[in-house]
Design brief:
Helix 1 packs across helix 13 and helix 6 packs parallel to helix 11. The chain folds into three domains: 170 residues, NAD(P)-binding Rossmann-like Domain (Rossmann fold, 3-Layer(aba) Sandwich); 162 residues, Dihydrodipicolinate Reductase, domain 2 (2-Layer Sandwich), CATH 3.30.360.10; 83 residues, 2-Layer Sandwich (Alpha-Beta Plaits). It has 15 helices and 17 strands. The strands form two sheets. Strands 7, 8, 9, 10, 11, 12, 13, 14, 15, 16 and 17 form an eleven-stranded mixed sheet that branches. Strands 3-2-1-4-5-6 form a six-stranded parallel sheet, sandwiched between helices. The longest helix has 18 residues. By secondary structure, it is an alpha/beta fold. It starts with a strand and ends in a 5-residue tail after the last strand.
């Protein structure tokens, strides 16, 4: 029987899950691939913990470079995270002619172009299903299952921490800071939650999906990123009254002018399936020209859901390890000489519909002044919600939903509205997406 020897870098949450799935399902995996996949060496700073998990069935070291330089290792599984040491280790493994499986979205979003070029030169596989949306096979869907389509757009809830927070805010009427504390207590959010709540983690994943969907290089540094820290309970409630849910979405959209690459809170009609994805779950909607919108749903994190994707990548390596680059699906789905350096649009150039909330003095003519400003800019209104002032107050909220316009145009309108004497404070602006056509 053929064998595939694996070197595992990191045996923490995902690494431990990967080892457990490989061990528990060994017979099933061999039946599917015709190859016995064996972890022969593990690198982890906690050597004793690694020895306990492996039970003496794999060599354990605290030196990750010992694994990437081990001539007995066929494929290196990188699960240590970060993008400095991990980059060095992955490139060294490739230089040594080893295949690589990684769950590291930050590494690929920032250095994927260099890593794929090095892998192509050495004719080795770099597989990364687990880098986006945990156990959901969205990378394989984009690279292979939807290969007959021209992908028009991708939109996803791709960060479980923020989805949990937004779900709790909507269902329990709590403020962001209160729910964040609960998310940290339950282990959904890190002690420093910046990457999650500011949308950076989602932008890493969106960068990878956009590269595969459109056949373009990784362009993380050009992605627009806006988190959920400024979202207020009032906007979640008003959105609900108007038939919408607010989700942190990663959106990649192909247009004639270029590619929209953006992460931000977004109003979605509550009738959409993706609007009803709650808790820490993930979901991605992909629109292809032939197939239409397709939805992929599941656990976006966790030991064994993510391990499911890592092991599936190892199975692909087992089947294709001796194939030439021409016989494999390209890293970014398109042939390397056909990857196009598509321009990424500045957020001001993006077209969207908008939710606006303004605080105004309760007196005649205010609404007329606001609607005139929008009309003069050819921004049409889709719906409006005008609240009555609370007891003993002279100000009230006005909520406006607009039809699609360019963001630059919308910002001009907001500036003019904020300059009206009757408007109090800043206008809240949240983008809206239909995701159904």
């Amino acid at each position: 029987m053929k064998h595939l020897n694996v070197g595992l870098l990191g045996i923490g949450t995902v690494g431990g899950g990967t080892y457990a799935v490989l061990t528990r399902n060994a017979a099933e995996i061999t039946r599917r691939t015709g190859v016995a996949i064996n972890v022969v060496q593990v690198a982890d700073r906690n050597v004793e913990h690694a020895k306990t998990l492996t039970g003496g069935n794999a060599e354990v070291t605290n030196d990750a470079f010992a694994v990437v330089n081990n001539p007995n290792v066929d494929v290196v599984v990188e699960l240590i995270g970060g993008y400095t040491l991990s980059k060095e280790l992955v490139l060294k493994a490739i230089e040594n002619g080893k295949h690589v499986v990684t769950a590291n979205k930050a590494l690929l979003a920032l250095h994927g172009n260099e890593i794929f070029a090095a892998a192509l030169a050495k004719n080795v596989i770099v597989a990364f299903e687990a880098a986006v949306a945990g156990g959901i096979p969205i990378i394989k869907a984009l690279r292979e299952g939807l290969g007959a389509n021209k992908i028009e757009w991708v939109a996803g809830i791709i960060n479980g921490t923020t989805n949990f927070i937004l779900t709790e805010m909507r269902e329990k009427g709590l403020a962001f800071t209160d729910v964040l504390g609960e998310a940290q207590r339950l282990g959904y959010a890190e002690a420093d939650p910046t990457f999650d709540v500011e949308g950076i983690d989602a932008a890493h994943k969106l960068t990878i999906m956009s590269a595969i969907a459109f056949g373009m290089p990784m362009k993380f540094e050009q992605a627009y990123t806006e988190g959920i820290t400024k979202l207020q309970q009032a906007d979640i409630q008003y959105a609900e009254e108007l038939g919408y849910r607010i989700k942190l979405l990663g959106i990649a959209k192909r247009t004639d002018a270029g590619v929209e690459l953006r992460v931000h809170p977004t109003l979605i009609p509550e009738k959409r399936l993706v609007a009803n994805v709650n808790g820490a779950m993930n979901a991605v909607v992909v629109k292809g020209d032939a197939v239409g919108p397709t939805l992929y749903y599941g656990a976006g994190a966790g030991a064994e859901p993510t391990a499911s994707a890592v092991v599936a990548d190892l199975m692909d390596v087992a089947r294709l390890q001796n194939a030439s680059a021409e016989q494999r699906v390209p890293y970014l789905a398109f042939q390397p000489n056909s990857v196009a350096d598509l321009p990424v649009l500045n957020i001001a150039e993006v077209h969207s519909a908008y939710y606006l909330r303004l605080r105004a003095s309760d007196k005649p003519g205010v609404l007329a002044g606001v609607t005139k400003i929008l009309a003069d800019l050819n921004i049409s209104i889709d719906a409006m919600l005008q609240k009555e002032p609370a007891d003993n107050e002279t100000e009230a909220d006005i909520v406006i939903l607009t039809h699609i316009t360019q963001e630059r145009n919308m910002d001009v309108g907001i500036a003019a509205i904020e300059a009206l004497p009757a408007i109090v404070g800043k206008v809240v602006k949240i983008r809206m997406e239909e995701l159904g056509k």
